[in-house]
Specification:
Blueprint: E1 4-10, E2 13-25, H1 29-40, E3 46-50, E4 60-64, H2 65-73, E5 84-87, E6 89-93, E7 111-114, E8 121-125, H3 126-137, E9 143-147, E10 152-156, E11 159-163, E12 169-177, H4 184-188, E13 194-195, E14 200-208, E15 216-222, E16 225-232, E17 236-244, H5 245-252, H6 256-267, E18 275-276, E19 281-285, E20 288-289, E21 294-295, E22 298-300, E23 306-307, H7 315-335, H8 343-371, H9 383-394, H10 397-406
Parallel strand pairs: 2-3, 2-12, 3-9, 6-15, 12-22
Antiparallel strand pairs: 1-2, 4-8, 5-8, 6-7, 10-11, 11-12, 13-20, 14-17, 14-18, 14-19, 15-16, 16-17, 20-23, 21-22
Helix pairs in contact: 1-3, 1-7, 7-8
Length: 420
């Protein structure tokens, strides 16, 4: 796999133009998996990395069944039991949890999701997956190059021309933008992103429950947003607490003891043995969606395409589905002798991703607004009615269908989602 280089004499300077069929832009986890997937399909690309300070992502990610199959096919699922934790049950409530909430038979209020005792998903640590991807991609013959400043991108009939401030130049058929929710590539292309402002921030931390969680995840809807615990190992959990911006700063700045008391008060006395075992961090929440998903010569993937509320833990699974479908589309185009800028690629990508993306956005936005009362200017329903609604939903067939959708591969099909 070899990228062509062309020298152009410009005044007294020689500008090296790098020709490559695909350019992947992004420093994060979605870009890493995208490169692994392109390698798997034998698709030539160049990866462009921006200059940034060393960054360690302390967050966790929920990987559903379809995504786990995909990562396995890409040889990225090399986690030991120490680095991935099964999720077999999910409890959702508006009330504090009972003393025996990790025993299904004792919990009477709210929603209980399961797949008849089978694994629903896994909790993994972002940094572990990121390092695994880097190690895997280090064996790829594809080029990795740094760029400086903002990229100047020109979309022409003959392809896409990319320049940085140091006069580096790349010529490609297609850019795949994996550069996050604040995507500079998306903005420079003039693509409209619809904001679904949550006016919230998320406080994340690792806690030790000092009791067995039995692979239960729990989530409580509070007036300012949901508080979720995703299981890690046997007794630990990843905490994600979404709060209005006015309250998040106050709670974030509490002492460790006061913060612990806030969590116990929110979840119930059954969590009174918990201890904090990491630093708290805070993340801005900017849910948005770019319904065009790209333009000729450009495809958006991951958060650059859709950034959703973290309450369902579905964000990275949507990104992985983007990657899987994009690679299917590009592989098919290559077999049919089409340029990677051919409009049929973007059309197929939109058609295959629209249903799942819109459904998950509607679900996460709807739940957050319905059950987190302060998201509304006016409180539409009293607490008693919404909790009755949770109880009714717990007995309806739709609950099982939602669990299957959350497991992935239902609303989106892709070759990478098939069994290894």
């Amino acid at each position: 796999m070899q990228t062509n280089n062309i020298k152009i004499l410009h005044g007294l300077n020689i500008i090296m133009v790098h020709k490559t069929p695909i350019v992947v832009v992004g420093n994060g986890l979605t870009a890493e998996v995208m490169c692994s997937a392109l390698n798997y399909f034998g698709l030539e690309y160049t990866r462009l990395l921006s200059q940034r300070n060393d960054f360690v992502d302390t967050r966790t990610t929920t990987i559903n069944i379809a995504s786990q199959k995909m990562l396995s096919r890409l040889n990225l699922w090399s986690f030991s039991n120490k680095n991935s934790t099964e999720i077999r049950n999910i409890l959702v409530s508006q009330y504090k949890f009972s003393e025996n909430c990790f025993n299904r038979n004792s919990e009477t209020s709210g929603l209980h999701f399961s797949l008849d005792g089978e694994i629903m998903a896994w909790t993994i640590e972002n940094e572990n997956l990121f390092k695994n991807c880097q190690k895997h991609n280090s064996k790829s013959p594809s080029l990795i190059e740094n760029y400086y400043g903002n990229l100047n991108i020109e979309y022409t009939e003959n392809g896409v021309v990319i320049n940085d401030i140091r006069r580096k130049k790349w010529h490609t058929e297609l850019i795949i933008a994996c550069d996050g929710a604040n995507s500079a590539i998306r903005e420079s292309a003039g693509l409209r992103s619809t904001s679904m402002a949550a006016n919230q921030e998320a406080i994340v931390a690792r806690i030790n429950l000092n009791r067995l969680h039995h692979n239960f995840a729990v989530q409580r809807f509070l007036p300012d947003g949901p508080l979720a615990l995703m299981p890690i190992r046997t007794q630990e959990a990843a905490l994600v607490w979404s709060l209005s911006k006015t309250k998040s700063a106050n709670i974030f700045n509490l002492s460790e003891g006061e913060f612990k008391r806030k969590i116990i008060n929110a979840l119930g006395d059954s969590f009174k043995k918990m201890t904090l075992c990491s630093e708290k961090k805070i993340w801005g929440l900017k849910p948005s969606v770019t319904r065009s998903m790209g333009r000729p010569g450009l495809i958006l993937a991951g958060d650059s395409n859709h950034s959703i509320h973290p309450l369902a833990g579905m964000g990275f699974n949507l990104a992985l589905a983007d990657v899987a479908v994009i690679c299917d589309c590009l592989s098919s185009a290559k077999k049919n002798g089409l340029s990677f800028s051919h409009p049929s690629i973007l059309s197929e990508y939109r058609a295959r991703r629209r249903l799942e993306v819109e459904a998950i956005i509607a679900l996460t936005q709807g739940l957050n607004r319905l059950f987190s009362y302060n998201s509304f200017k006016f409180k539409t329903f009293p607490s008693s009615l919404t909790n009755i609604g949770l109880g009714i939903m717990d007995s309806l067939p739709i609950k099982k269908q939602l669990a299957k959708i959350a497991a992935g591969g239902v609303l989106t099909s892709a070759s990478l989602f098939s069994d290894v």
